[in-house]
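Q: You know discrete backbone vocabularies at least as well as I do. I have my own habits and do not want them to colour yours. No explanation is needed for now; the record alone will do.
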Amino acid sequence: MHHVTGVLLAHRCNVLVNHEFADVEAGRFFMRTEFSGEVEAGEVVEECRSVLPADAVIRLVRPGRRRVVVLASREHHCVADLLVRENFEELPFEILAVASNHRELEPLVRRFDLPFKHVPHENLSREAHEQELLAVIEPLRPDLVVLAKYMRVLSPEFVRRFAGRMINIHHSFLPAFVGARPYHQAFARGVKVIGATAHFVTDELDAGPIIVQELLPVDHTHSRQELARAGRDVERMALAKALRLVLEDRVFLNGNRTVIFD
């Protein structure tokens, strides 16, 4: 939109990349602009606000590493992938801690010299357990919370604390297999494709706005173990892609959908 680029031009900024999308049905317009130049953030935001509709949402961010807390349970593959990517700076984030309701992943996390927080759920109500979890997370003030195969259902109250800032990864098949041992169920049904979905967390289980979906073809030659191994691969791939998009501020929430500028 020329109103915004005009403000940047007035500040002698150089527009590097610009993406726009108009959702005609919803009556909403989305714009993402990358620019270079030294500006005073508050001044630019106010000038943009003066030339845009009163209900416009404006966000100005500087590139940099974001603060992330990872929640996990027993499965290692997504956590391990994130630890390696953080260690080699493949993603612009800093893992502040890994919190888990089990201890199995503690040795792995300690190898990367990162804090591991054990928050057991045994003999606790969901509300009491979540209060203990919040006592670990909130002092760290993360920008994002990532559920890396965290196998507990979170309450609406907990989810609302991190609305738009919590990302989950889960297996997704056609048809959908709920409950335990999804890859065994997939094998029994002879599926021809397996996949994973990374999405924002909302009150409705596994139904939040989708960020990334990855699919992998399989056939009758795949054993249960091979399906599970392939599933782990596609899950960590989808989570890493989604996290990159969010960390680079390429994802816009549009109701229960997302607008993504690659």
Notes: The mean pLDDT is 93. The two ends are 18 Å apart (CA to CA).
